[in-house]
Amino acid sequence: MTDGKEISLETKAKTDYATNGAVHYAKHIAENSSFKKIFAIGITGNEKHHIIQPVYVTDQEIIILDELETLENFKEENIEKYYKTEVLKETPSEQVELQEIIRLSKQLHEDLRNYGQLSEHEKPLVVSAILLALQDVNFSIDMLIGNQVSKDGKKIFDALSNYLDEVEVTPDFKKRTILDQFSFIKNRVILNRIDSNLGKTPLRYFAEFINDKILTAIKSNVKEDVLGRFYGEFVKYSGGDGKGLGIVLTPSHITELMCDLVDLKPSDTVLDPCSGTGGFLISAMHKMLEKAKTEEEKKHIKREQLHGIEVREDLYTIATTNMILRGDGKSNLRRTDFINTDIEEIRKLKATVGLMNPPYSQAKNEATAHLSELSFIIRLLDSLTPNARCAVIVPQSTMIGKTKRDKENKKRLLKYHTLEAVITLNKETFYGVGTNPCIAVFTAHKPHDPEKRVKFFNFEDDGYVVKKHIGLVATELAKDRKKKLLDVYFDKDEAPTSFMVKSTIKATDEWLHSFYYFNDEIPSVEDFKKTMADYLTFEFDMRSHGKEYLFDKEGE
What we know:
The chain is α/β, with parallel strands linked by helices. The protein is built from 22 helices and 14 strands.
C-alpha cells in the first residue's frame, strides 16, 4: 500500500507489502468463489511496533479501513457489527439507544419544569419515586385520578414505601432518609391537581411517560447507569447546577474500564466512597455477576460485597433507587461524609477493591486543602485491606501536584502505597465539563519500591468521538483500543513508548505519560527530508528579512 493509502496490485507490490498481497488473494477469492465479501488484513512490523491494516474487498470494490491495534473486531461475536458500522456505515445500535435516552431526557426535563415547576435536584427524585412505585404489585397508574382527598402524590409515596419494605431496605434509618427525600410529592399542590392542558395531574403524566419510555431502558441496559445518565442530562440542561460542587458523573465505558484494570473477581468486596448515582457499583456488580458461578454466589455479591458512601441526600437516594431497580435491595449504601467518617468503621468493610471519582476542585484554599483529590485518594487507600487494588479517575493536575501540600501528599502516598499505572484519557471523556482526566491505579498498604517501573499510558485515542447533539460516543475502534490497553497493562502485549512508558518515579515528578515519554522511533527518510526542508525554508526566510546573523558561527 502506498503512503497515499492506495492499493497496488503490481507483482512486486504483492510480494513486498503485506496488505497488497492480502488484497490480491482476497480479490482472487471474490472473483473466483462463492465468497463475495472479504476482509483482507495486512500486518507488518513486530510485537512492539506494528501496523494492522484491514481492507474490505469484493469483486467490485476495495475499501481501505482505519488501521487497528488488535484483531478484536474480527472475532466471531464482533465481526458483523464491525462490518455494519465500518463498511455499511450504519449507526451502531448503542448510539441509537443513546440518542433516544438523550431525547427522552430532554423531553422529560422540559415537562418536569413546565408542568411540575420542580427544582433541579427535585426532578431526578420525582423520576426515582415513580420508578420505585411502579415496582409495587399493588400500585397501578389508573389509581392516579387527581382526587384531592387521596392525592396522587400520597399514592405514589405509599407504593414506593411498600416496595422498600418488600425488598427489605434496612436499617430503618436508611429507609427514612430515602422517604424524607420523596416526601415533597405528597402535598405539592401543582403536582397533585389536574392540569387543564394535560387533562390529568402532572404526576400521572410523568408516571405514564416513565412507565412507557424509561422503565424498559433501565431494565434492558444492565450495564448502563440509565438513571445516572438521566441525572447527568438534568444537570446539563439546568445550566450546570452540579459543576460548581464538583459533580462529574463518570461515563459507563470508564467505570467498566476501571473494573477491568483492577481485575474484579466474584470474591472481591468493592467500595466507592463517592458513589454519586451508583455508576461504579453498577459496573462492578455486573462484572462480578458475570464471573460468579452459582446463584448463592450472585446473591452474596448483591447483598454483601458492594458498598458505597455518598454525602448528598439526593444523590444517595438516586443511587439507592438505581441499585434496587437492579435487584440489589440492600445495596450497602451509606449517607455520610467519607472524609470525616471514622476510618476504622470503613475498614470493617474489608474492601479488597476501591473505585472512585472524587469531587473535583474543592481544595480552593488552606481551609479546604484537606478536600483535594489526593486527600481523597490517600484516605481511600488507607481504608482498604492490605494489597487491595484501587482505581481512581481524577484531573491530570492531580498527578502533577502543583501545590506544596499536593507534593507532601504524593510523598506520603508512596510511603504507604504503590502506584501501578497512570492512564491519560481522551480529553473529551467528560464532554462539556472541561476536565482533562486520567486514571491512576494503586495497590494499598504496600510501600512503593523506588526501583519499581510504573506504567504510564497515553490513551487519548480511545476510539470515542464527540457527535453533535449526542456527546461522546464509541466508534468501532473503541473495542480494539480497549483490548490493546488491557493487553499491554497486563503484560500480554508490547507497545511503543508513544503509547506506554515504564519508569521509576519520584514524588516530585509529574505522574503522567507526557512527563516520561521520549520519542524512541527511528525517523524515516521522509521525516528527515521534511525536517531539512523546514529548516532550509526557515533559514531562507530569516536571511531574506535581514537576519542572517542568526546563522553566523560563534566567534566569527
